[in-house]
């Protein structure tokens, strides 16, 4: 499917009443550290605390009345689970969420708080998919994929669209990459609304399947990822990968200690809560300071759902 400029404009208009237009913040001190002007699109202030509310809302708003009666289902270790639960609640429909047993407690509590029904499974992709199929077969709920879905990608693109509306002359936008919903959406937003802005993906070394996939020219599945960035553990999908391949300049990998250092800078200097997955994008900029010297850089701070009892610093 070719996602057009019109698709993105229609999507943004559709979801606007149900999402926050999040602020864009900057820090003089972080600019000095980076040697560049950085503009943080703060999706940690989005409803349910992450950008995923955008894609979930777009997908749910396009269900037919009949589909809405059966509800929606997804599998997610956290942020998409919360997004679907809240977006479904807003529209008055049922949400079934398959979550791995080791998902952060804070995220499970939030899903329940939004009225989602949790089905726990062992923490493997295979178990998630099996459990999900059982739920769908039993309930008739519509499966919404956390990222490998064009309506979800279109929704995620709206974060970068808003950023570009406010800062039209960015040299680059950095976004973290897990399954690729945010990165592919960001790349499409830049392609259609700010073609001179490069889009860069940021990824943990311990979960670098997107980097490997770009090198190889085909999807390399994620195996045994090890990273503090718990939102970036999934593999690219057959819908996100081609968009990333076509429109993303490069993917920069960062070490765990670089992620923690970047996360700490955001907390200390900006006085805001950002999760480790969000900090990966700043870590990538700081790792490549020479290359981005004096440039105007956008960063999508993807979310702020942090288990406070398990801070890495």
Automatic annotation (TrEMBL):
The keyword Lyase applies. GO terms for molecular function: ATP binding; D-serine ammonia-lyase activity; L-serine ammonia-lyase activity; magnesium ion binding; pyridoxal phosphate binding; serine racemase activity; threonine racemase activity. This is Serine dehydratase. GO terms for biological process: D-serine biosynthetic process. Keywords: Lyase, Pyridoxal phosphate. The keyword Kinase does not apply. InterPro entries: TrpB-like_PALP, TrpB-like_PALP_sf. PANTHER family: SERINE / THREONINE RACEMASE FAMILY MEMBER, SERINE RACEMASE. Belongs to the serine/threonine dehydratase family. Its cofactor is pyridoxal 5'-phosphate. CDD domains: Thr-dehyd. It comes from Labilibaculum filiforme. Residues 16-303 form the Tryptophan synthase beta chain-like PALP domain.
């Amino acid at each position: 499917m070719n996602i057009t400029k019109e698709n993105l404009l229609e999507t943004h208009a559709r979801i606007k009443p149900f999402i926050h237009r999040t602020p864009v913040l900057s820090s003089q001190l972080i600019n000095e550290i980076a040697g560049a002007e950085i503009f943080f699109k703060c999706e940690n202030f989005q409803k349910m605390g992450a950008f995923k509310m955008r894609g979930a809302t777009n997908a749910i708003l396009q269900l037919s009345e009949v589909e809405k009666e059966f509800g929606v289902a997804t599998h997610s270790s956290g942020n998409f689970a919360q997004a679907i639960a809240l977006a479904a609640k807003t529209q008055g429909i049922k949400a079934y969420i398959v979550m791995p047993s080791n998902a952060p407690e804070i995220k499970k509590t939030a899903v329940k708080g939004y009225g989602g029904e949790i089905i726990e499974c062992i923490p493997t992709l295979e178990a998630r998919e099996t459990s999900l199929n059982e739920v769908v077969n039993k309930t008739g709920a519509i499966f919404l994929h956390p990222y490998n879905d064009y309506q979800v990608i279109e929704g995620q693109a709206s974060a970068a669209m808003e950023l570009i509306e406010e800062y039209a002359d960015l040299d680059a936008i950095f976004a973290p990459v897990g399954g690729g919903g945010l990165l592919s959406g960001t790349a499409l937003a830049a392609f259609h609304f700010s073609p001179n802005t490069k889009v860069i993906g940021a990824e943990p070394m311990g979960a670098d399947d997107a980097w490997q996939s770009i090198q190889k020219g085909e999807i390399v599945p994620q195996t045994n990822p090890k990273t503090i960035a718990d939102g970036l553990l999934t593999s690219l999908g057959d819908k996100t990968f081609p968009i990333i391949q076509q429109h993303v300049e490069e993917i920069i990998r960062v070490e765990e200690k670089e992620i923690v250092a970047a996360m700490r800078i955001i907390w200390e200097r900006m006085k805001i809560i950002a999760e480790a997955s969000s900090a990966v994008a700043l870590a990538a900029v700081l790792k490549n300071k020479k290359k981005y010297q004096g440039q105007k850089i956008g960063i999508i701070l993807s979310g702020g759902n942090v288990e406070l009892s398990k801070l890495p610093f």
